[in-house]
Amino acid sequence: MMDFEKIKEVSDKAFFPTYNRFPAAIVRGEGAYVYDSTGKCYLDFLSGIGVTGLGHAHPGIVEAICNQAKNLVHISNLYFMPPQTELAAELTALAGLERVFLCNSGAEANEAAIKLARKYSNITHEEGRTEIITLEGSFHGRTLATAAATGQAKVKSGFEPLPGGFRHVPPGDFETLAAAVSDKTCAIMLEPILGEGGVVVLPDAFLQKVRALCDERDILLIMDEIQVGMGRTGRPFAYQWTGITPDVMTLAKALGGGLPIGAMLAREKYAPILSAGSHGTTFGGNPVACSAGLVVLAHLRDEAFLANVLKMGDRIRAGLNNLKEQFPFIETIHGRGLMVGMTLATPCGDMVRRAFEKGLLINCTRESVLRMLPPLIISEKEVNEMLEILISVFEDGI
After folding, report:
1. How much is the pLDDT for 332?
2. What is the pTM of this model?
3. Residue 352: what are its φ and ψ, rounded to 5°?
4. Domain containing 367: what range?
């Protein structure tokens, strides 16, 4: 294997410079820890940006991947695939939404949701509704359509003209959202917790009002649970805290336990909208990724597993709140389950870099929000270790 300097040299020449990478080549992981090419250990409180929910090298996922790969890696959606069928049956049952389209990523899942909403409205409403309302600060992907849906200017910059048909309103402001609904509106698309937007938890009462508005106007309610779903909040899906059910839900990230897979789920009434030939994917629902996904879903049916997510999330927030008394630049601690944000009175990019140097992986959103997305298998010992490192980072100053 190349040494790190050679890896960096080759990478810098070969890749588009789309990532500001940290100076480490990660070569191995186990549980909540990863190791670089020099052998240095890091406590991973980012989980590949919410992907490795069961931790690194989870034995069940490794076994499922290897067993499936021995038999079939790919065949295409022209044929039935047992792992795909099993995943679809279990996922729809767990979500309470009867239909699913499997794809490769969150952006693709959101693209499918956008297409479903527009086609349903074009068929159902003579006025030809096409507009989708999303939230300021939201993140829905990096394709042209999902970038247009995203409520952050930096995602759109330089790629204009983007597809039209999207309006953005402030998160949690129901009056402004309701006023934005018109005869052109076909859907409201939102994240129950804005991840890239700073770990902003939308109030349950707000989401309940949005559900009622969608019912009244025959508007699709699309919940983007790409980051917040799959047990991250202590329930299989974040919407299950609210007492409502969306018309459409999108998933990805942790669904495959580390392998790329996405899903768009919807109510039965929307099944005829995406008929044969109207939408598709070459790799979506790959049998290897689906086999890994079945292991993930088994954990989401385990009440003790989800109880630990809540317990560890509470412990993290309690520990971070204790730090507020010691470090006045800490403003608020927020989130749900193991999706945690800490808003600071200062940009936090340098703190993320210093945490990395001390062996802790976290990241920064909205410039001043430290975000933590640890594996859902995290233990009390690892939470304490994270707090110790973070104290050391904060003691170095801002």
Report:
1. 97
2. 0.97
3. -65, -40
4. 4-58+303-395
